[in-house]
Write a structure and sequence with these properties.
With about 725 residues, the chain is α/β, with parallel strands linked by helices. The chain has 23 helices and 30 strands. The strands form seven sheets. Strands 11-12-10-13-14-9-15 form a seven-stranded parallel β-sheet, with helices on both faces. Strands 16-26-25-17-24-23 form a six-stranded parallel β-sheet, with helices on both faces. The chain has a five-stranded antiparallel β-sheet with strand order 2-1-4-3-5.
Length: about 725
């Protein structure tokens, strides 16, 4: 057996170290095992990533000990981690750390143990209960409870009978009861009542899509399918029936959703169909819940995993299908190293695990749609809503004409106010969408032009009425609202711009009898806040739901007949080549919340640029037309999907040091890049300062990952970067900020 282990320690060195395996551990150390190893003057935790009989080093230290009896990472996941490290130009240690939740990695993470008390009927039959009631009524009561209920947790038995824990031990010594130690699962779905459901009859387009997915599951031909279905076309039912096909083969499945807000509804639908076979993994779980859910998957007790981005790495044995719902969503992109995109890594995991991958969206990312057009992915279309319900009627309101007519710019146009009022009278529901939280986006002095800005970030402070504070949405800084202008002393400060808090305030003033809830990151900090708000809306207790992008996609509320988009231009004018695509996707997704029941829906889009191609394409729900135009402009500029885009950000202080390091990085990189790679910069980032750190960027566009991945990792190893400057490499970047 191999007697040398290649180990990565939990420090981002991007290196593997050779260690001898002691004789007593040779049969126990396997790929993926966690180990403790001597490292310098300390002992470090690491993972075994290779086994061999040979080392280039003559003198090797030995592994100190094994952590845990079984490896937590299997060979396929290790292969995936290596690919992530290479593709995203990150250290292998960082990639491995992404595979395991923190609650699982920690040495102190444990199952919650509870003592279970079981009666011993044979011994109790021989007991004189009358004598026991007379001499020890509490012991007698405990025996009666156990005979009635079969078994009880020790804590429950103590509470209900009044007996002490020591007395229960006496009963055990007498042979009347038996105490077993049992893992107590921390269940994130505890307390929820979910009614079982049965498979629905599929419409012809759904049935054809399902057959294609089944073929993929059975033969891996095709290995990846893009399910392009209009909102309300029944994509989720296709997912559910495809997973049933997977389970019938003894395999498992992973279902990814982009937003925590989507998780309660999605989990409910999957649990209603598959019960306890479903495990949940997302960031709003407690550490204990995440630990227990992960181990349920690891032990094979849960065969279906539903969760956000990191659920992709769940240790599902015999994986048969990975579903990526709303595959276009930017929240699938990890914000810290390794900066992976869960959609793309899902495709790679499918290749490694030899399982099918299903990508679903009403407005697919251009990269995915282009892959389907060129034959890399198979394409399944759902052109119609289930029951052939009508798509919502799309109306665009030109806010320039509204301003001329009203003599000022109002937040709500007259058509939107009238539409909301009619919905309230008809007891129908309305969603109002604005992708900006807070009350006002800035405070301005009309006298001198002063704008309240964050001293640590190159952005203005947002006014939040709750707490009367100015907050920075980049670094979180909060300060009091000034009574007068700090620049000229004028008391006439003006609140400019609008956020969801202000929308809520206006709605209360205009529609005082309406029941209103707001859903954004300010109102969803509590653990079950997403579930509670959406639950109230689903049961009809809320007339108007106001929110940011977390209410814009994936949610199914048949009672919603009106969607109002307050300011459609907000994402159009960002300094990003994807601005038009994001605006189109957001409008299509939020429009899809309307008319999902028996009553046709209406969407009112307020905009100052009504003739922009993205707005017009969204009005017509014309995905193909928008893509044709957008893809051609991307081709001319060598942007994705025709090239990979890499954004290298250097941040630190002082600015001169950051700029100098960026130039050194760029100069060294130029000598290593292949001629097909286009390098731009270094230059200040659009968000030039964040959290007190100056930011400079280098942008690379290249048709092949091999053109830049190796050179970037080489520069990262060789460049002597100042301690005050941090470098972040974002391959296939989705944001240029």
């Amino acid at each position: 057996m191999p007697n040398i282990a290649k180990v990565t320690v939990e420090i981002a060195l991007d290196r593997e170290f050779d260690y001898n395996i002691p004789d007593e551990l040779v049969s126990s150390v396997k790929l993926g095992s966690r180990v403790l190893v001597p490292f310098g003057r300390t002992v470090a935790r690491g993972y075994v990533v290779g086994l061999t009989d040979h080392s280039d080093f003559k003198i090797l230290k030995s592994i100190s000990s094994l952590v845990g009896a079984k490896p937590l990472i299997n060979e396929n996941l290790l292969s995936l981690a290596r690919w992530i490290g290479d593709y995203y130009a990150s250290a292998l240690e960082q990639a491995i750390r992404s595979l395991l939740p923190c609650a699982v990695r920690r040495a102190k993470a444990k199952f919650r143990i509870q003592n279970m008390v079981n009666p011993v009927p044979e011994a109790i039959k021989l007991l004189n209960m009358e004598e026991l009631r007379a001499s020890s009524p509490k012991q007698a009561r405990a025996i009666e409870l156990l005979m009635e209920k079969g078994s009880m947790f020790l804590t429950d038995l103590v509470d209900e009978s009044g007996i002490g824990a020591a007395s229960v031990k006496i009963l055990e010594k007498k042979g009347l009861v038996k105490i077993d130690r049992q893992d107590l699962r921390r269940d994130p779905l505890a307390g929820q009542s979910i009614l079982p459901t049965q498979p629905l009859t599929l419409f012809p387009e759904q049935a054809a899509a399902l057959e294609l997915v089944k073929k993929s599951i059975d033969t891996l031909n095709p290995p990846v399918i893009l399910l392009h279905g209009v909102t309300g076309s029944g994509k989720t039912e296709v997912y559910l029936q495809a997973i049933r096909h997977v389970l019938d083969q003894g395999k498992g499945a992973i279902v990814l959703v982009p937003e925590i807000s989507l998780t309660p509804q999605t989990v409910e639908r999957f649990c209603a169909r598959f019960g306890d076979m479903v495990a949940v993994l997302h960031s709003h779980l407690s550490d204990g819940e995440r630990h227990d859910e992960w181990h349920r998957i690891f032990e094979g007790k849960a065969r279906i995993v539903v969760g956000a981005r990191s659920a992709l790495f769940a240790p599902v044995d015999r994986l048969g299908l990975i579903v990526v719902d709303e595959e276009h969503e930017t929240s699938y992109k990890q914000g810290e190293a390794p900066r992976y995109n869960a959609r793309d890594v899902a495709v790679k995991r499918g290749e490694i695990e030899k399982c099918s991958v299903l990508l679903g969206s009403a407005s697919p990312a251009l990269e995915s749609f282009y892959n389907a057009r060129t034959g890399k992915y198979a394409l399944a279309n759902l052109h119609n809503r289930v029951d052939h319900r009508q798509m919502p009627r799309m109306n665009i309101v030109d806010m320039r004409l509204e301003a001329e007519r009203e003599g000022r710019v109002n937040v709500f146009s007259r058509p939107l106010v009238e539409a909301i009022r009619s919905r309230i009278e008809l007891h129908e529901q309305t969603i109002l969408f604005l992708n900006r939280r807070g009350f006002s986006t800035s405070i301005i002095c009309p006298a001198c032009g002063f704008v309240a800005a964050c001293p640590q970030c190159s952005v203005s402070l947002t006014y939040h009425r709750e707490g009367e504070a100015l907050r920075c949405h980049v670094c979180g800084r909060a300060e009091k609202v000034p009574a007068k202008c700090p620049g000229c002393g004028s008391p006439a400060l003006k609140f400019s711009g609008i956020g969801t808090q202000r929308i809520e305030s206006i709605v209360h003033a205009v529609f005082p009898r309406a029941q209103v809830r707001r859903m954004d990151s300010d109102t969803t900090t509590a653990k079950h806040s997403h579930r509670d708000i959406l639950g109230e809306f689903k049961t009809g207790k809320v007339d108007i739901l106001i929110g940011t992008q977390m209410i814009a996609k994936g949610l199914h509320f048949p009672g919603v007949t009106l969607v109002g988009v307050i300011y459609a231009d907000q994402s159009l004018h960002m300094p990003d080549f994807r601005a038009a695509e994001r605006t189109f996707q957001l409008l299509v997704q939020v429009a899809g919340r309307a008319g999902r029941g028996d009553v046709p829906g209406e969407v009112i889009i307020q905009t100052f640029t009504p003739y922009h191609p993205a707005v017009q394409a969204a009005r017509r729900l014309d995905y193909d037309g928008f893509c044709d135009q957008e893809i051609e402009s991307r081709r001319e500029l060598s942007y994705p999907p025709f090239a990979h885009l890499v954004c290298i950000t250097l941040e630190g202080a002082p600015e001169e040091l950051v700029a100098m390091t960026a130039r050194q990085f760029s100069d060294k990189l130029k000598t290593l890049l292949k001629p097909t790679a286009i390098l731009a910069g270094p230059m200040p980032a659009p968000l030039s300062m964040a959290k007190g750190l100056y930011r400079h960027q280098i942008i690379i566009r290249s048709p092949s990952v091999d053109d830049f991945s190796g050179p970037i990792k080489q520069v990262l190893r060789e460049l002597k970067c100042p301690a005050k400057v941090k470098i972040a490499v974002d391959v296939d970047a989705l944001s240029m900020m």
